[in-house]
Structures are given as C-alpha cells and as structure tokens.
Write a structure and sequence with these properties.
alpha/beta; Uracil-DNA Glycosylase, subunit E; 8 helices; globular
Length: 230
C-alpha cells in the first residue's frame, strides 16, 4: 500500500449513499458565487508532506470549500484561518489556500479528516464515520506521525480510537495535551470553523498558542529516514 494507491481508493469510494447523493447535489447546484466553476464533488484525500511528523485532523470536507476545490480545507473561511496560522507557525509556505494548483506546500505537516465526503449540515452519522474509518486507519499507518492536532471533538475521538487509547482518556480540551508511552502526542484545538472564529470562541492568538505548542513538540521529535511510503 502507498499513499497514492490509497488516495485512488478514497476518491473512488461510494460506500455511503446519503453522502454520495449530497456531495453530488452540492456539486451540481453550486453556490451562486462559484456557478462558473466545476466542483470536485468526490471524496477528499489528505494533503501535505508525506514525511510529516504532524498530522492535523479535521472533521469533513466543506460543501463549497473542499467539495468544490478537491483539496482539504481549501477555498473556504475555515481554510483561510487554518492556513494563515500554519504560515505564521512556519508549517506552510503561504498564508492562503484558494485552489489545488495555487502552490501551497506544507512543511512537516499533513492534513486529513475521518470523514471524506461532505455531510448534510456537517453532521455525519455514526455509521458513516465507521465506514470511513478504514481510510483514516490506513492513511495514518502509512504516515506514522508523532504529533496529532485534533480540530474539534470528533477529530479528537477519531485519533484516540486510532491510537487505541482508553475512551475515558484524555477528554477533549482546547490546548490540552496527552501522550502515550511511545511518545505520540495529541493536542486538542477548537475547530477552525466560521462558527468558532467569528464568534470569538477561537481567536487568532488562541490558535497561535496551540500551534506554538505543536511546534515545540515537533522540535523534540527526531525525523525518521524516508521509507518511500509515497
């Protein structure tokens, strides 16, 4: 298994009828501002540095962001907030993310999500999350990160389940950190959604402090030799 092969399998997936129908309807109807554009309308793969020690975990593609552009967190307000922060932290080469060919590169970071298709009302069902879990598990097995940044409760839970940590530990908190005996670290952060950033629940300074913590953890983790997982 390689990342390239896994990505082809993800893009071809039609396992969840409700999600398939919704992502394709959104791509067909479109938002007025993007009516001249061709929407991606398929499942979303991860993106970033394939040798990353940091994996950032979101929830699912945005209806008119990733579901339109074909790249996770690209083309919407959540991505604007996220990539600007990663740029300030030295984890991205530019502060904006507009489309798949805009030149964005991540440094020592990979972004993914446990649900690959945009869900109605941003609410995947437990059954849909379970069906998608195999992709998340296989992807993280290929990457073998040492630090996770979980954006929100669902992402936090997905990482805990992947690591097989006890369900009661650790509970999600913004800026909270936990690790296991192997040294793998999990940091929690409020999701970068407009609902959080426009209401002040997650501010720029709050996000920067979390990213500073993440970078300090990376500074303490050696980079392993490339084993050609791509």
């Amino acid at each position: 298994m390689t990342l390239a092969l896994l990505e082809r399998r993800i893009v071809a997936c039609r396992a969840c009828p409700r999600l398939v129908a919704w992502r394709e309807e959104v791509a067909r109807v479109k938002r007025r501002a993007y009516r001249e554009q061709t929407y991606w309308g398929k499942p979303i793969t991860g993106f970033g540095d394939p040798r990353a020690r940091l994996v950032i975990v979101g929830l699912a593609p945005g209806a008119h962001g990733a579901n339109r552009t074909g790249r996770i967190f690209t083309g919407d307000a959540s991505g604007d907030f996220l990539f600007a922060g990663l740029f300030r932290a030295g984890l991205a080469n530019q502060p904006t993310s507009v489309h798949r060919g805009d030149g964005l590169c991540l440094a020592d970071a990979w972004i993914t999500c446990p649900v690959r298709c945009v869900p109605p009302d941003n609410r995947p069902t437990p059954e849909e999350v379970a069906r998608c879990r195999r992709f998340f598990t296989e992807e993280l097995g290929l990457l073998r990160p040492r630090v996770f940044l979980a954006l929100g409760h669902l992402a936090h839970r997905a990482v805990i389940e992947h690591l097989a940590w006890p369900r009661s530990y650790p509970s999600f908190s913004h800026g909270g950190m936990a690790n296991d005996p192997s040294g793998v670290c999990l940091v929690g952060c409020y999701h970068v959604s407009r609902q959080n950033t426009q209401t002040g629940r997650l501010t720029t300074s709050m996000f920067d402090r979390v990213l500073q913590l993440v970078v300090s953890l990376l500074d303490a983790v050696p980079r392993e030799a490339d084993d050609s997982t791509t």
